[in-house]
Design a protein that fits this description.
Length: about 350
């Protein structure tokens, strides 16, 4: 039996990862999550009571708790996903981002170091630092991020994740901790909190609200379906080489405007607008260009060749198929969406604390 400790496992990527891991009969999972605004047990409802899953509510900054969980469950790998992750929120106030993404990562690394040093860790133990391509900054019209790309973060969120990455690298090189680091492109799929672009656009559209597109809409992102990302994370945890970094992308670049237009076309097909407030000409009529995000990176793209060659991983979902599945999920789970107490107001204008 392969035992995993997943931090942030009640959040968007974490909950999908827990669910994916439990589909393997030879895997057990301990989920650690503080259940802040974007983490919810609703995201894990379908694995509640699963005999190979245990949920623990707790803070990754609580090193004593983490050390106790490691001693009790003796995981073969820690997948550290717990993080504050929304760029706009980090612009308004970076405090929680620094606490969780930097200090929380430090606490996790120290707990893992003691776990390995005590001799309790199984052979082949790995600590997976789950990070983002945003730490690399912004690309021009050409090129792609890769494992040798320099950290050059431009948002408070990206800077906080870069800080955690640097700590993970230092703990690997100074203490010999078997760290594997991953940098993923933009994820999308079920259970993503409605502040993020894709769920925000879907929910605003079906309510006939404006679809805000930042700046000129020509910012480019490489989109990765969350299930594909989860497959890559499990491969990194089980087969990744300690001390090695893997960049993970969907190979699906799209401008923000083109992405929103694709969502509108899917909604025209799957949820045709009706009623007095229905936008004439379809959902595209709801698109509104708004002031750009401060420090908005222009383009991200990822070279995932190392993950493909070394881990045998590649995305299974095209962007078109993934978007269709995602739109269908949000349309079928309006109760989950309505339970997320979020007014979808604009954040990230730099006027916070």
């Amino acid at each position: 039996m392969t035992a995993l400790l997943v931090t942030g496992g009640a959040g968007f990527i974490g909950a999908n990862l827990v669910r994916r891991a439990l589909r393997d009969d030879a895997c057990s999972v301990v989920t650690l999550d503080l259940l802040t605004y974007a983490g919810s047990l609703d995201n894990l409802r379908d694995v509640a009571g699963h005999p190979r899953h245990r949920f623990v509510r707790g803070d990754v900054c609580d090193r004593a708790l983490v050390e106790a969980l490691l001693r009790e469950h003796r995981p073969d790998a820690v997948l550290h996903l717990a993080a504050e992750s929304h760029v706009d929120r980090s612009i308004d106030d970076a405090t929680d981002f620094l606490r969780t993404n930097v200090l929380g990562t430090h606490a996790m690394l120290e707990a893992a170091r003691r776990y390995v040093g005590s001799g309790a860790a199984p052979p082949g133990f790995r600590f997976v630092q789950v990070s983002t391509d945003e730490v690399f900054g912004s690309l021009g019209a050409g090129g792609r991020f890769h494992e040798g790309s320099a950290h050059a973060p431009n948002s408070p969120y990206a800077a906080s994740k870069a800080g955690g990455d640097h700590l993970a690298r230092a703990w690997a090189n100074t203490y010999g901790l078997p760290v594997v680091t991953t940098h993923c492109s933009n994820n999308y799929g079920p259970y993503q909190f409605p502040e993020k672009l894709i769920p925000l656009m879907i929910l605003n559209a079906v309510e006939h609200r404006a679809l805000p597109v930042y700046g000129d809409g020509q910012h480019v992102r490489d989109w990765l379906y969350v299930d594909d990302h989860c497959d890559a994370l499990l491969a990194a945890a089980l087969r990744g080489a300690p001390g090695v970094t893997y960049t993970l992308g969907g190979g699906a670049e799209r401008t923000n405007l083109a992405l929103v237009e694709s969502l509108c076309a899917l909604l025209d097909e799957l949820a045709p607008a009706a009623g007095l407030r229905a936008p004439p000409g379809g959902y595209r009529a709801l698109i509104r260009f708004v002031g750009d995000r401060p420090g908005h990176d222009r383009r991200y793209a990822v070279d995932a060749a190392r993950a493909r060659d070394a881990l045998g991983w590649s995305p299974a979902h095209s962007l078109d198929a993934g978007l269709r599945a995602t739109v269908g999920w949000y349309l079928a789970h309006r109760g989950w969406c309505d339970a997320r107490a979020h007014d979808r107001a604009r954040l990230g204008l730099g006027g916070g604390a």
